[in-house]
Each structure stands twice: as C-alpha cells, then as structure tokens.
What we know:
mainly alpha; homodimer
Amino acid sequence: MPRNSDKHERLVEAAKHLIHQQGFGQTTLADIAEESGVPLGNVYYYFKTKDDIASAVIDEHMREFRALAAEWEKQPDPKRRLLAFLDMPSAMRDTVASHGCPVGSLAQELNKEHSPLAQQADNLLKAHLDWVRKQFRELGRADADDLGLQMIATLQGVSLLCNALRDPVIVDRQIKRLRVWLEAL
Amino acid sequence: MPRNSDKHERLVEAAKHLIHQQGFGQTTLADIAEESGVPLGNVYYYFKTKDDIASAVIDEHMREFRALAAEWEKQPDPKRRLLAFLDMPSAMRDTVASHGCPVGSLAQELNKEHSPLAQQADNLLKAHLDWVRKQFRELGRADADDLGLQMIATLQGVSLLCNALRDPVIVDRQIKRLRVWLEAL
DNA sequence: GTCTATACCACGATAGAC
DNA sequence: GTCTATCGTGGTATAGAC
C-alpha cells in the first residue's frame, strides 16, 4: 500500500492528462511512468493492471466533479447553479479544442471495448446528466429529464465538433447561446 | 490493381463495420481478414498499410453521404430536406445505441492520434455540417452557420449519450424535438 | 518499497512459394 | 493474383535483486 509517498497520486494525475490527450488505447504504461517520474516496472507496485489505472483516473474525475458540484450548489437558485456549471466548459475551451471533452471522449472510447471500464465511465457521464436534471426539476420543469439531456448532449456535441474543427470559438458561441436559453427558460 | 474481384470491396465493408463496432485501434487486420473471408497476408495486396484501409473506409462513408444527400436534395424545399436528413439517425437508432455515430466516434478517436487520418475524418464531419448549413442558408436564415452547428452538435451529443446510456429511445425523443424545432423555424 | 531486466504476446508488415 | 509462414516491434506484465 502506498504510504508516505505521492507516487500513486502522481501516476493517476499523469494518466489523467495523457489519456485525455492521446486516448486510453494510445497511452502506454511507459508514457505514464515517464510523465510521472516513476520507473516503468514500479508502476505495478501501485496498480495491478493498466485497466486499474484507468479506473483510478475515472474515480478521480468523479471526485473532481463532486467537488465542483458542491461549489455550484452554493448558488441560491437552480438557474444560477446551471449557469455556474457552464463556466466549466467555458474555462476549458482551449483544451476542448485540442483534445475534446475528457469525460465524453473517454466514455466513447471505452464503450467500444467490452471491458467493465465502460460502465464506470458511463456512470461519470450519468452523474453530470443527473446533476443537471436535478436543477431543472428544482426549477419546476416537468420536462426536466429532456432538458437535462438536451443540455449535456449539446455540450458533448459542441466539444466533439470544436475538437474536429479545432476552433475554440465554437465553444464560446454555443455556450453563450445556452446561457441565453437558460435565462429565458 | 483489383480487377474482376470484389475482395477490395469486401475488405472495406468489413473494416467499416468492425471499426464502427470496435473502434479503429481495437480492430486488427486479422479481424478484417476473417470477416471478409480474405487470408491475412493477402490484405496487403490490396492495402499497403492499416491506415490505408481506414482511409478507404472514410472515403466510402463520404461516398455514401453524398449519395444520401443527392436523395435528400430531391425534396422541394430546404426545410423538408433537413427533415429528410433526420431520417438517417432515426433509422440508425439501434446501432447508435450499441456503437455510437460511425463518423463522430471515428473522428473523435482519430483526433487523439497524430495521423493525417484525423483530418480526413474531420472533413467528413465537416461535409455533414456544410450540407446542413447550406439548407439553413437557403431557408434565408442569417444565422445559418450557428443553426447548422447547433443541429449537428445535438445529433453528435445525442449519439454519444444514447450510446453511453444504451437507450435508443433517447434518439427518438431528441430527434422528435429537433423536428418540432425545424417546423417552427 | 524501489528499480532493472526481461519474459511473453499481439499485431502490423514482409518474403516468397505457387 | 493468391496464400502461408514468419519476422520485428512495441507494449503489458513479471521476476527478482537491492
């Protein structure tokens, strides 16, 4: 067990970045070892398999999401919470243009494999969706489930197109549109 | 040069299906050879590299898109052309739930590599986008570019979520919403 | 707990017989 | 043109010294 060392943490952090940039399949254990400054063979002291690293990365994404959600929930009403949520993709516009959405692209990749990792990534995406839907419900919308899906789908689609067209301005424009849409709701 | 043989065609067709189902990285030449009934070593008579096969697959997608577009363009007005366009994802709802959008997921995967294939897949996605934008322009909309992006982004996002949640009904509902939106435009 | 060296295997690609 | 056999590389995972 990792004790007084931060190597475990460094490995997960390196894997998180590399997987976002290169995808899970393209990222080798050697890449992760190098980026985190841990010798290759030593990686197996912390993780039994490559899949275990990916699993830890998804867990980390989930923790980060929960921490952000706790921040957004400090807003006094659901509409402002949703607007706060939109700050996330806005702030990531450049990295989205370069590598897409870290959670959406990972989920899509893992869903092509038959590994149980896919389910875990899907749950992460579902956590985003559920949180947004909850806000729409608190707004009193009977069609909260559809609205939430519409919002997350738009963000995922915009990320994909923004990445394919390599144009961060797409994120700006479409998020602005979503803000207007929210305000008017 | 392939002449009186359909092996070339069978290889591309097999690769197209397998890449959609498993992704490009996960699909091996052995898979493609087996599915198309061509011996492994013989694949290299038709394609110099694995990338060349992917390139041919993307070309094939492009041809199919152009053929469909030619059909849609038989509709008398742009609104009906856009509605006809939406029949495609509707008809594919089950395979989208199983494996995502064949062009969107491929583009996202290839954009994580540094290969020139990414550009080719991006062009395919852009062809879809350009066609839709053209229809909005012919509808007389000054914001045609935004509307087109909004529509393609929605479809891509819906495909991704539908795949992650494994629920084809999501496609039905959201396409229905898009139809209503179009009618009202 | 840490690191080196290496086993082992899958896959892309090639050689060369027919 | 077709197919078999095989090479070489690179990547996951392990053995075992320190």
